[in-house]
Write a structure and sequence with these properties.
314 residues, alpha/beta, Rossmann fold, three-stranded mixed sheet, 11 helices
């Protein structure tokens, strides 16, 4: 039986990292991206008769339906992710991150896609920025999308920052280090971190077991950004610039309110939907997590040597 998958944000860091694995698993891979330059660059690195290259925007519902025709699985990774850009352009963030996600839900249902997974972010938890708020709404749209679907099952994967991704602070600090000075908003700041390879495998593992309606969250270690800065640029001076509007000192992957309906499944958490009009079973081995938020401040910290090892592959 032929199998096929579509990936929105198909020229981004996640898509480039997951593509080799998808080519092993699926007979056809549709990559959707509105950035034709990055798509051309990716095509020069990895080309295969299995890949269908779509110039497409998640804001364009008819185009999504064309791309999803005959597709079994969708990974929705397209988003406007730069916090400052989203803050300055909230309408655009809403149009892509929120309305675009609703379009993905509608197209998946109309095309009979079996499973559809949203790639989300820790910034969606107790959101304080336009980016986080737009992704929090996207999560809600995906979870409740199950109530409108007869065949399609929607789930969410939420994780923290990825070393090596295009939106990471790592390439910025590497560039700044050449001048002998790097910028840091606050020395107390902590963030969750994982590698792109870890993110890719976690997403695919969750896709294999999803019932629909869950939010999957990996248990991650965190670090103080000041420690990461020292590992990246040990000889550079650090100029503290202060928190940007809406920026948090520490990120959450599970809020205190969510913890009451979140399962601790060992290496991950699974946030169960509170409103399940679509019925069906969701069965995971795990106990309800201890009440309280899962915060980058309280999470186990990555030692400097661990950060250096993670950076080697980024």
């Amino acid at each position: 039986m032929n199998t096929s998958i579509a990936v929105t944000g198909g020229s981004g860091s996640f898509a480039a990292a997951v593509l080799p694995l998808l080519l092993e698993r699926y007979d056809r891979v549709a990559l959707l991206s509105r950035n034709w330059i990055k798509q051309r660059e990716l095509r020069s690195q990895i080309d295969s008769p299995k890949i269908r290259w779509f110039i497409a925007d998640v804001r364009d519902l008819p185009r999504l339906k064309r791309a999803f025709d005959g597709v079994d699985m969708v990974l929705h990774a397209a988003a406007l992710k730069d916090v400052v850009s989203c803050e300055y352009n909230p309408r655009e963030a809403f149009a892509t991150n929120t309305v675009g996600s609703q379009n993905v839900v509608d197209a998946a249902i109309d095309c009979g896609v079996r499973r559809c997974v949203l790639i989300s972010t820790d910034k969606a938890v107790a959101a304080t920025t336009t980016y986080g708020k737009s992704k929090a709404l996207a999560e809600s749209l995906f979870v409740q999308g199950n109530a409108y679907a007869h065949q399609t099952r929607f789930s969410v994967v939420r994780y923290g920052n990825c070393l090596g991704s295009s939106g990471s602070v790592v390439p910025l600090w590497r560039d700044q280090s050449r001048s002998g000075e790097i910028t840091l908003t606050d020395e107390r700041m902590t963030r969750f971190w994982m590698t792109l390879d870890q993110a890719v495998h976690f997403v695919l593992d969750c896709t294999d077991v999803a019932y629909g309606g869950e939010i999957f969250i990996p248990k991650l270690k965190a670090c103080f950004l000041s420690e990461l800065a020292r590992v990246i640029a040990p000889d550079a001076s650090v100029r503290v610039t202060g928190l940007r509007p809406g920026e948090k000192l520490h990120e959450l992957l599970v809020s205190e309110e969510e913890s009451g309906h979140t399962l601790d499944c060992g290496d991950s958490f699974v946030v169960l939907p509170e409103f399940r009009e679509w019925g069906g079973e969701i069965a995971y081995e795990g106990a309800v997590m201890a009440r309280g938020a899962y915060s980058s401040l309280l999470a186990e910290k990555i030692p400097p040597e661990g950060l250096a090892e993670m950076l080697e592959g980024s």
